[in-house]
Amino acid sequence: MNRVGPRQRLSTRLVFLGNGLAMAAWAPLVPFAKARLALGEAELGLLLLCLGGGSLMAMPLTGMLTARFGCRLVMLISGTLVCLFVPGLAFAPSPLLLGATLFAVGASIGTMDVAMNVQAVIVERESGGSLMSGFHGLFSAGGFIGAGLMAAMLWGGVTPTASAVVIVLLVAALLLLAAPHMLHGADGPAREGPLFVMPHGAVIFIGALCFLSFLSEGAILDWSAVLLTMEQGLDASRAGIGYAAFSVAMTLGRLTGDRVVRKLGGKHVLLLGGLCGAAGFFLSVLATTVPLALVGFVLVGLGAPTWCLFCSRRPATSRPCRPAWRLRR
Prior knowledge:
Blueprint: H1 6-24, H2 26-36, H3 41-69, H4 71-85, H5 95-127, H6 132-155, H7 160-178, H8 202-230, H9 241-264, H10 266-286, H11 290-312
Helix pairs in contact: 1-5, 1-6, 1-7, 2-8, 3-4, 3-5, 4-5, 4-7, 6-7, 6-9, 8-9, 8-11, 9-10, 9-11, 10-11
């Protein structure tokens, strides 16, 4: 039986913050990796698939791991692997090794991601209040802190490898602070039934909205720095400000989104958020100056959270949901 109180809520927030920090470390490193390995856009695009591929392979398995070994052990092991693999993104000497490292980072972050959301679901349920939006807001806060700190260090002349090490040290410190109050196991016995059920109806629609949100965030994470360096001529050491601007806007959207939805209604927010995100992509791609591109990233950051907010506020169906499959963002 898990006992949930203020310490468990704080522990969950720290893990979300650390996961956001780790994810953000990659964005400022993309132009450095591209230049170091002399990669073309097509080659870089193929390598970037490795990050998502690692997450895609690991996430479906994490529910079973947390059910068997508990949230705490899975978060600590995956978080340790994140800290070990992320610095390798800064010095991988060949495209093959960079792809393997990206796959390992994606799998580790994805595993940590699902496990921390399993804990978040339990903490929210046992606390009797709405906490998930705030947890996800801290993930986004970790994004702009991590990207901003990386950009500041690179701009100040710190090497990419040393900058990445600083980020993983911060992640490790957050995990150590959170570890004593992580939940040791899933709350109650695991449900019996098939591991996969063919989605239908509203589930497909909600999944499509989540896919759009993930796609938007992934595009900014992987390509914002490249766009700023290649199209706007921004120095690679400062290119991380693109993802930082996006993360600031996403944090504001997540922390205020529930109130906006209550005031305007879910359908209106979904429509306005979609238009905002689309306008942001068009502006960032067509912009002729760095400030305009940053405004575009901010618009995408404000629009993307509305899709997941809409999904999270849908009425519950008659079928119970397994917490292990509830993901972030």
